[in-house]
Amino acid sequence: MRVVLATNNAGKLRELQALLAPLAFEVLPKSQFTQEEVAETGTSFVENALIKARHAARAAKLPAIADDSGIEVDALYGAPGIYSARYASAQASDADNLHKLLAELANTADALRTARYRCALVYVRTADDAAPLICEATWEGQIARASRGTGGFGYDPIFWLPERRLTAAELSADDKNRISHRAQALQQLLALLRGQSPGTHSQAGY
Ligand code: ITT
Q1: Which pairing describes strands 64-73 and 2-5: parallel, antiparallel, or unpaired?
Q2: Which of 67, 68, 94, 156 is catalytic?
Q3: Active site residue 129
Q4: H-run or E-run covering 69
Q5: Residues 57-81: pLDDT tens digits?
Q6: Ligand 1: which of 84, 96, 136, 159 to mutate, most ligand atoms within 8 Å of CB?
Q7: What pLDDT does residue 196 have?
Q8: What is the largest CA-CA distance in the chain?
Q9: Could you tell me if 16 and 7 are in contact, meaning their C-beta atoms sit under 8 angstroms apart?
Q10: Counting atoms of ligand 1 from 1, which one is nearest the CA of 70?
């Protein structure tokens, strides 16, 4: 099945392509069809994922998968959340964003540095699909005091996994793809897709 991946984020693309590679999907990046950006005007991860999926499906005339994700920090009442990619500024780099987060938490005690990644992953068969498949998952961790590791992307060098005593950037790509928020949401989505008869809107359990 041909499907367009509605992301301009190279890190997400790499992870989702690796997860989908063994399956019967031909995964095409959105950049093959359009360079146009779509404004993420939603107020939730799910809304933004749907905006991106519909935009990519319209451009590619193919089913689309989109991911909207971010990091929620408890001491910051869930910020940066849906604004994670633009936390330091509209054009912020991953390094700008994680340095801003470290600065914001400079006076926050270790026990209060809890955080989680959240991922909304959606699948639309067409741009105006009225029954999109929607999955959400989280990955719990803490915000470290300094960057460690070179893997992953985004906030991974400061996303500390206390039970492993590693940051997400110190995990191998395969290990991250076994446990991350994105990996969990994709497993849910694949289960829904497996339960869906071709050409119908019905989902598993209905
Ligand atoms: P697209 O909208 O094109 O997919 P984006 O980077 O703008 O790319 P989002 O709006 O969903 O995507 O923002 C997600 C941000 O959350 C991302 O830029 C990272 O800063 C962070 N993030 C999400 N998942 C992450 C992960 O697995 N590891 C590290 N940071 C992550």
Answers
A1: parallel
A2: 68
A3: no
A4: strand 64-73
A5: 999 999 999 999 999 999 999 999 9
A6: 84
A7: 77
A8: 55
A9: yes
A10: 16
